[in-house]
Amino acid sequence: MDSPGAKQQSVGMANLGTTTHSYLHTELERRRASLQAAAGANVSDASLRRLISSVDEALARLSGGTFGICEVCHDSIEADRLLCNPLLRFCLDHLSSEEQRALERDLVLAAGIQRGLLPRADWSVCKWQARYHYEPAALVSGDYFDLIENEDSFFSCSATLPARESPRPC
Fold it and tell me: What are φ and ψ of residue 19, in 5° steps?
């Protein structure tokens, strides 16, 4: 029978792969060196010491086979989130209240940016007029739509990215 630690390693690392594991290790070591150089100039900065400690903990999890495992539920942390921030220790379901609010603010900001990139609703060029209705499936969507003008003509572009169970900003 496998120990819980062995099971955690196979679950968490299965989502990452060898190349990603190597990249994350190199990236964490690079961050650690940069932070130590910065801390050397300002040893009294507690936030730098905490960051160095967080990087060391992530490197220990990577070496110990528990990297990418949520510390609460022991399920895998979303791989795309780990690539953005290899210091993560919790999956989306177990974020603190502060982290949930920060994520919600980021999603609202992303939705506003996405809406701001849409063409005017009353767009026209020459004798052509275009109207559209945009309604994302979630707060932030993988949908793309644009009208591109070119002298006396235009191009219409639209695309939909595969759906995900929930948006995950970087």
Answer: -65, -45
How would you write the chain as a 3-class SS string? CCCHHHHHHHHHHHCCHHHHHHHHHHHHHHHHHHHHHHHHHCCCCHHHHHHHHHHHHHHHHHHHCCCCECCCCCCECCHHHHHHCCCCCCCHHHCCHHHHHHHHHHHHHHHHHHHHCCCCCCCEECCEECCCCCCCCCCCCCEEEEEEEECCEEEEEEEECCCCCCCCCC
91-136: pLDDT as tens digits:
999 998 998 999 899 889 988 888 887 777 777 777 777 777 777 7
CA 80, 84, 86, 89: dihedral to nearest 10 degrees? -70
Domains and CATH numbers, the chain: 4-94 (1.20.120.910), 99-160 (no CATH)
Single-letter residue type at 123 = W
36-61: pLDDT as tens digits: 888 776 656 788 888 889 999 999 99
Report phi then psi at 150, rounded to 5: -145, 95
Distance CA 90, CA 103 (A): 13
Q: How far apart are CA 78 and CA 164, in angstroms?
A: 12
